[in-house]
Structures are given as structure tokens and as C-alpha cells.
Write a structure and sequence with these properties.
The complex is a heterodimer.
Chain A: H1 3-28, E1 39-46, E2 57-60, E3 63-73, E4 80-87, E5 98-103, E6 110-115, E7 128-129, E8 132-133, H2 138-155
Chain B: H1 2-35, H2 44-81, H3 90-128, H4 131-137, H5 142-180, H6 185-195, H7 198-226, H8 231-261
Helix pairs in contact in B: 2-3, 2-5, 3-5, 3-6, 3-7, 3-8, 5-7, 7-8
The chains are: A alpha/beta, B mainly alpha.
């Protein structure tokens, strides 16, 4: 085989590998959702974050607007401090926006939902969201339900 | 009886010394190969020729194996997941297992069998027919001329092959899931995009395949260079290449997985 032919085949091989990598990056993995754009960071304190993890989505009205960047436990207030990076194009959340930890489906993964408030001032980088609602922990709910049932029985 | 025990211990010691001596030889050999790799920049033709015989000629088996592995994974995970109504996760399952484990590992095993054995046999035969010594007589460094291009071609080809394997495997899984089992196209891709991470999954898989490429090529060229220059020794060296590369790949895969994916 001539060396020209060999070089063409090697070139095709490398090109195929690069195409395969782009396919993996763009359509299989989440690179397209990184956006590559600017982000700003807001924090929120929760009593209980349930199964929330770093890189869990942050959504408003069901649209993903950012991701959880960091989760810390505060020794002073005994709360979890969740840092979220929000895409800069979504910069019109009023300062009284509330953050809730929700579950997608009955047993799905947990995410943070934003419910916008009614203020003139908007959240900016480094702000802390004051109004938060913790995760619903299924075991606690079942436990409360059982206790209330038991109480009802006693009263009868 | 006491003498018998001492003989046993002596034998054990001899085996251990033999293993370490061989390991030392192999390490020095690897350093020599890497040191003489720089000379290849002056002659890229040598590397391209080896990329053809190591990479391009392995491509067919990699693509065929990848498609079938992906299709089988898709089929089997569908049967397991459909009971829980979670059959939309087939895409995630196929993509994650291919990218993290099967892509690098199966590619490396096939690579050791197809390209590694060929490298050992070729270099071993060159040694048996005294071509390597002939080159030295002509003041051509066989390390630079023969060994380094083959080693580097293996190191470069492995990640390329593993990437192609994962990609065609996911496409094969997609064809089975969507066209045979009737899953939704959008669910297949969006579920996998939601769960597969570019850094932890795709990049770590590529790092794995680079490590496997270094190890498999290293073993292949060393066994060829170090073989007993007879037809029997050549056969044994080729067998050793395949067996040792496969074991090393599986063992390293466990270590790399433990380092990369355990949180």
C-alpha cells in the first residue's frame, strides 16, 4: 500500500475518533447544558436538605436556571448552607424569592425550586435567600401520620 | 525434611528475584523507549505507518464489538428496568456503563489481543532473525527506529479506539432501544444528558483508556524485545503479552475505578 493511502486512512481514523468524542460530549453528556455563560452565586439556608447533592438542578417554573455549587453545614446556626450558581441571564429574581427543596416524582432526585417574590430589588451575586422551605423527608411524614392516627384512636 | 523446606524457600526466592529482575528490566526499557521517542518528531512517517497497523487495522473489530455490546446492554437493561417502569433510563445505563467501564476495558482487551500480540510477534521475529542487531551494526538505533514508533502508536491509538467504541456502542444501544423496543428518542438522549457528566464520566473514561494504552503497548513491545529468539520463545512471548496485558488491564481498572468514582 502506498504511503499516501496509509496517511489518508490514519487521517480518517483520527477524524472518526474526534467525531466520536464530540458526539459523546454534545449529545450524550451534559456539556451543552453548561452553557459556558456567566453565572452569579446566591446562598440559602435550609434546616434539612434531604437528598440534595452538589450539581443538583435549580429551577424556576420548571425551567433549569442553575445548579447547586456547594453544600456546607454551619456550626453556628445548625443549618445547611447551599450555594447555587445561577445563569446570569436569569437575573430578575426579586429579593424576597423563596427557595424550596422539591422532589421530582415520588422517589426521584431532589432539586431546588425558586418561587419569585414581589420586590423591586433583585438578587445579585453573594445574596442570601431568607425564605426557604426544607425537604420533605418521607420517613418523617410517615412517622407523623402514624402518630396522629394513634392519637385519634386514643381519643375514641 | 529440613533440607526439603530450605529447597522450597530457595525456589520461592529464585522466583521472586526473577519477577523483580524482569520488572526492573521492563521499567528501564520503558524509560529508554520514552527517551528515544523524541527522535520520532524528525520522522513522523514511522509513527503514521504504525498508527495504521496498530490503530486503523484494529478499528473493524472495535466497531463491531462496540455496536454489539451496546445493543446487548440496551436489550438486557430494558428487561430489568421495564418491571419498575424505569425503561426510559436505558439510555443512561448504556451510556454510563460504556463510558466508565466497558468502553476502556473491552477496547483494551481487544487491543491487547489484536494489536499487542501482533506487535510482540513482529518485534520478536525481528529479534530472532537478527534484524535488530543488524540495525545496530549499521548504526541505526532500533529503539528509535522500531520500538518507539510502535509504542507511541499504541499509546495514541487506545484512547481514540475507546472513544469510537463508546460512541458506536451508544448508537447501537440507541437503535435497539428506540427502533426495536419502542422507547422515546427524546427520553433516551435527555435522560442520558441529565445524568452523564462530561468531566467525571467522559474524561475519566479517556484517562482510563490512556493508562490501558500505555500498559498494553509497554507489555507488548517489551515481551517482543525480550523474547527468547526461537520459534518456541516467540510463541510463548506472544501468549504472555495477551495474558499479562489482560490481567494488568483488569487489575488497573479496579484501582482506577476505586480512585475515580468512589466518593
Amino acid at each position: 500500500m502506498t504511503s499516501r493511502k496509509i496517511e489518508i486512512l490514519v487521517g480518517l481514523f483520527v477524524a472518526a475518533a474526534i467525531a466520536a468524542f464530540f458526539m459523546l460530549a454534545m449529545s450524550v453528556s451534559n456539556m451543552s447544558s453548561y452553557g459556558g455563560g456567566e453565572n452569579y452565586e446566591v446562598k440559602a439556608r435550609f434546616d434539612n436538605i434531604g437528598g440534595l447533592k452538589v450539581r443538583s438542578p435549580v429551577s424556576a417554573a420548571g425551567v433549569i436556571i442553575g445548579r447547586v455549587k456547594d453544600i456546607q453545614y454551619s456550626n453556628d446556626s445548625y443549618e445547611a448552607i447551599v450555594s447555587m450558581s445561577i445563569e446570569s441571564k436569569y437575573n430578575k429574581f426579586p429579593i424576597s424569592t423563596s427557595a424550596t427543596i422539591l422532589t421530582s416524582g415520588l422517589l426521584g432526585e431532589q432539586y431546588i425550586g425558586f418561587q419569585p417574590g414581589y420586590d423591586e430589588e433583585y438578587l445579585k451575586d453573594g445574596d442570601v435567600i431568607d425564605i426557604t422551605q426544607s425537604a420533605l423527608v418521607l420517613e418523617q411524614i410517615i412517622g407523623q401520620f402514624l402518630y396522629s392516627k394513634a392519637d385519634e384512636k386514643k381519643e375514641e | 525434611m529440613f533440607n526439603g523446606l530450605i529447597d522450597r524457600i530457595q525456589h520461592l526466592g529464585a522466583v521472586a528475584i526473577g519477577i523483580f529482575r524482569r520488572l526492573g528490566h521492563a521499567s528501564v526499557f520503558l524509560l529508554q523507549v520514552i527517551a528515544s521517542s523524541a527522535g520520532m518528531l524528525a520522522r513522523p512517517r514511522l509513527l503514521i505507518k504504525q498508527l495504521y497497523s496498530v490503530g486503523v487495522q484494529t478499528l473493524v473489530i472495535i466497531v463491531v464489538a462496540g455496536v454489539f455490546v451496546g445493543m446487548v446492554m440496551s436489550l438486557q437493561s430494558y428487561y430489568a428496568l421495564v418491571d419498575f417502569g424505569a425503561e426510559d433510563s436505558v439510555g443512561v445505563m448504556v451510556a454510563l456503563s460504556l463510558l466508565r467501564e466497558l468502553g476502556p476495558v473491552v477496547t483494551a482487551l481487544l487491543f491487547a489481543g489484536r494489536a499487542g500480540s501482533a506487535l510482540t510477534a513482529e518485534i520478536g521475529l525481528m529479534k530472532a532473525t537478527e534484524q535488530l542487531s543488524g540495525m545496530e551494526m549499521m548504526a541505526v538505533n532500533p529503539m528509535q527506529r522500531v520500538i518507539a514508533p510502535r509504542f507511541m502508536a499504541g499509546v495514541i491509538s487506545m484512547p481514540l479506539l475507546a472513544t469510537i467504541f463508546s460512541a458506536v456502542g451508544i448508537l447501537g444501544g440507541y437503535v435497539v432501544a428506540v427502533h426495536l423496543l419502542g422507547l422515546d428518542t427524546g427520553a433516551f438522549w435527555s435522560q442520558s444528558q441529565a445524568k452523564v457528566d462530561l468531566y467525571t464520566d467522559v474524561y475519566n473514561g479517556i484517562i482510563k483508556s490512556v493508562v490501558f494504552g500505555v500498559v498494553a503497548s509497554w507489555i507488548a513491545v517489551f515481551e517482543g524485545y525480550d523474547c527468547v529468539p526461537t520459534s518456541e520463545g516467540l510463541g510463548q512471548a506472544t501468549t504472555r503479552t495477551v495474558v499479562q496485558s489482560s490481567l494488568a488491564i483488569l487489575f488497573l481498572d479496579f484501582i482506577l475505578t476505586a480512585l475515580m468514582f468512589s466518593k
